């Protein structure tokens, strides 16, 4: 059961973010919920790269195959995911500021000019 727990946590965090995104009445809240959805990928990537009893991937003091090591590629992907998530959140918040300046509201239902 312990091996499944991080995957269940990632799925739960993702679903909570999606629920918040679907029920949001504020664009800033929607951006925050999207960031919560993004954070589920951090948990998922760390769960994929985890090894029981694994050490840091520094091989100067180890003989090859003597101990398990965690996957450094997954750690690098998680760091990249954090940077991309922060960048996307900043861009979306900048767009929300521009929408608020032009339309005077951050409620998606009140943005009548954007309806198709």
Core attributes:
mainly alpha; Helix Hairpins; 3 helices
Question: What can you see in these coordinates?
Answer:
- The chain is mainly α.
- The protein has one domain: Helix Hairpins (Orthogonal Bundle), CATH 1.10.287.3510.
- Helices cover 63% and strands 0% of the residues.
- The protein has 3 helices and no strands.
- It has helices spanning 5-22, 27-49, 72-103.
- Helix 1 packs antiparallel against helix 2.
- The longest helix is centred in the C-terminal third of the chain and has 32 residues, at 72-103.
- The chain is elongated and about 65 Å long.
- The chain starts with a helix and ends in a 13-residue tail after the last helix.
- The mean pLDDT is 88.
Question: Helicity range of the residues?
Answer: 55-70%
Largest sheet: none
Classification by helices and strands: mainly alpha
Q: Can you tell me the number of structural domains?
A: 1
Total count of helical runs of at least 4 residues: 3
What would you call the shape? elongated
Q: Tell me which CATH architecture applies here.
A: Orthogonal Bundle
Membrane topology: Multi-pass membrane protein
Family: Belongs to the CPA3 antiporters (TC 2.A.63) subunit C family.
Subcellular location: Cell membrane
Protein name: Dehydrogenase
């Amino acid at each position: 059961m312990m091996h499944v727990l991080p995957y269940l946590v990632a799925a739960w965090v993702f679903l909570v973010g999606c629920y918040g995104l679907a029920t949001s009445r504020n664009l800033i809240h929607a951006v925050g919920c999207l960031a919560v959805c993004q954070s589920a990928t951090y948990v998922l990537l760390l769960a994929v790269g985890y090894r029981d009893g694994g050490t840091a991937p520094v091989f100067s003091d180890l003989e090859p195959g003597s101990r398990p090591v965690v996957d450094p590629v997954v750690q690098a992907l998680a760091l990249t995911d954090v940077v991309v998530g922060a960048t996307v959140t900043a861009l979306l918040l900048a767009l929300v500021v521009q929408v608020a300046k032009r339309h005077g509201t951050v409620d998606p239902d009140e943005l009548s000019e954007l309806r198709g």
